[in-house]
Amino acid sequence: MRIGQYQLKNCLIAAPMAGVTDRPFRSLCYDMGAGMTVSEMLSSNPQVWKTDKSRLRMVHSDELGIRSVQIAGSDPADMAAAAKINAESGAQIIDINMGCPAKKVNKKLAGSALLRYPDLVAEILSAVVNAVDVPVTLKIRTGWSPDERNCVEIARLAERCGIQALTIHGRTRECLFKGEAEYDSIRTVKQSVSIPIIANGDITDPLKARAVLDYTGADALMIGRAAQGRPWIFREIQHYLDTGELLPPMPIAEVQQIMQMHVRELHDFYGQGKGTRIARKHVSWYLKEHAPDDQFRRSFNAIEDASEQLEALEAYFENFLRK
């Protein structure tokens, strides 16, 4: 799988997810087998670039692997400026978000709302492609609603504008994350353009990954929610694609090691206060199958001190392994 001049180490990509795919999580997914990771969405509005949230999202120096940064907005000039700033800050690929279904994003005519306006889509894509020397990619949904599916039209337009890879989440904006992903639509797009196509949506395990690749003909897979609390899913899928064999479940001691390392990195990256708050959701995802009664997760979420969080995790696993 190539994007412009960049060769990915495999065909598995960690999806951009706001509030999730920060620097620590991207590094972990890459270490756990992702061929590339994409940063969480960065607004093209220059008024927010100096906020702490945006500043941390623009940290790309010394990052492992190919550095792909996602930008979102509806003004072609702002999008071009955002692309340039991120390329100058170390982004090797610029990804344009036209797939986010969130109301607060769509209200600003950004994300998947843009799919209703192909002429504006073309203006934005051309402006960004012409603004930077790095490859530009695009992420979309299959359309605004089941009655307004236009992913083939947008894909052809993207190819004409110089987009070098296209990710399709197999749902319309109206569908949000409900129902099953439309792999038929992704397959049709793949047959309609010559640029690389990345399939996204409901890829939850190695067998599903193999089936989606085979059915759609996609060049790569993008995995989002299934990696939350389970970043080793990339390793599991790659092993199955290579060998046809399933890896055994991750040993609980290794889960503990990965989780505690992740929590420490969140504390270091954000600072103890914010890092402690952000660690809560990640720990909740990690423990979904190991602590189904929620009791530990509730008590963990009440901890305000970073070192206490690590001590609580240590004690939890010691108790779990004794059972």
From TrEMBL:
PROSITE patterns, A to Z: UPF0034
Enzyme class: oxidoreductase
Reaction(s) catalysed (UniProt annotation): a 5,6-dihydrouridine in tRNA + NADP(+) = a uridine in tRNA + NADPH + H(+); a 5,6-dihydrouridine in tRNA + NAD(+) = a uridine in tRNA + NADH + H(+)
UniProt keyword Acetylation present: no
InterPro entries, per the entry: Aldolase_TIM, DUS-like_FMN-bd, DUS_fam, DusB, DusB-like, tRNA-dHydroUridine_Synthase_C, tRNA_hU_synthase_CS
Enzyme Commission identifier(s): 1.3.1.-
Catalytic residues (UniProt): C100
An example Gene Ontology molecular-function term: FMN binding
Keyword Cytoplasm: no
Residues engaged in binding FMN: P16, M17, A18, Q70, K139, H169, N200, G201, D202, G224, R225
Keywords: Flavoprotein, FMN, NADP, Nucleotide-binding, Oxidoreductase, RNA-binding, tRNA processing, tRNA-binding
Cofactor: FMN
CDD domains on file: DUS_like_FMN (cd02801)
Boundaries of every DUS-like FMN-binding domain copy: 14-319
Family statement drawn from the similarity comment of this UniProt entry: Belongs to the dus family. Belongs to the Dus family. DusB subfamily.
Function recorded in the entry: Catalyzes the synthesis of 5,6-dihydrouridine (D), a modified base found in the D-loop of most tRNAs, via the reduction of the C5-C6 double bond in target uridines.
The name this protein goes by in its record: tRNA-dihydrouridine synthase B
Organism expressing this protein natively: Proteus hauseri ATCC 700826
